[in-house]
Amino acid sequence: MKSLSSALAALALLPLSACSQEAAFDQHAEIVATYPHDARAFTQGLFIHEGVLYESTGQVGESSLRRVDLETGRVEAQVDIPRPIFGEGSAQVGDEIFVLSWQAERGFIYNAATLEQVDGFNYPGEGWGLTYDGRHLILSDGTPEIRFINPESMEWDHSIEVTYNGRPMNNLNELEWINGEIWANIWMTRSIARINPRSGEVVGIIALDTLIPSEVLGRRDAVANGIAYNAQTGQIYVTGKLWPALYEIRIVDD
Ligand SMILES: [Ca+2]
């Protein structure tokens, strides 16, 4: 559901309650620092491993996994994900980076140092976001279900249903494990949901409204997507699809 027409169709199917999700903000993001970001990158995955920034991108023929210099936005290394694959979320486990695809039910494993593909895996359903909690890969697929996967066997361990005020929440997109919570961009909104990884309850909504770069205002495909947490420093970074900037943010209570 990532083309504009299907997105509009999906919006038309949303109950009114889902449309009001964006209204109830608990917190908002303020910019700490602004960095360049490749404005051609259709960001689907973003994470920092031991201080190094990685990004995976989507669109058929433009999908890739990159190692990026945070300060300059320069792509230091890149491996393309060939047609007809549409790249999605990514996460690192040990020395390997796992990358999802949207609808191919196929994922790819790369050596983090060389970005050479070393293996692959299959999974049922769509792939949207991916993160790692130190034990499980955590996968979103656009539904309210978030799945926890054993990265060694690639078998499902368990799943949770994400709910907001008791109602299932759809369109959970890029993910990040931050201090015992799952943070998720909510596709087609300017919001991040903070999710309790045991109960699935949304414990907070962070508004990103003030971050949308003027260059992409009004572009419905250029949504906020991509959250990276530097676990060593506590710094949080966000960007979006086709955004020319990546931001370090601080979270402020409303
Ligand atoms: Ca992430």
Provide structural commentary:
By secondary structure, this protein is mainly β. The protein has one domain: Neuraminidase, CATH 2.120.10.30. The protein is 6% helix and 50% strand. It has two helices and 22 strands. The chain has an eight-stranded mixed beta sheet, with no helix packed on it. A hairpin with a 4-residue loop joins strand 21 and strand 22. The longest helix has 10 residues. The protein is globular and about 45 Å long. The relative contact order is 0.20. The N terminus is likely disordered. Calcium ion binds next to strand 2, strand 16 and strand 20.
What are its keywords?
single chain; mainly beta; Neuraminidase; eight-stranded mixed β-sheet; disordered N terminus
Short précis:
The chain is 6% helix and 50% strand. It is mainly β and 254 residues long.
Could you give the topology of this structure?
Layout: H1 4-13, H2 16-19, E1 27-36, E2 43-49, E3 52-57, E4 64-68, E5 75-80, E6 87-93, E7 96-101, E8 106-111, E9 117-122, E10 130-132, E11 137-140, E12 145-149, E13 156-161, E14 163-164, E15 167-168, E16 172-178, E17 181-186, E18 191-195, E19 202-207, E20 224-230, E21 235-240, E22 245-253
Parallel strand pairs: 1-19
Antiparallel strand pairs: 1-22, 2-3, 3-4, 4-5, 6-7, 7-8, 8-9, 10-11, 11-12, 12-13, 14-15, 16-17, 17-18, 18-19, 20-21, 21-22
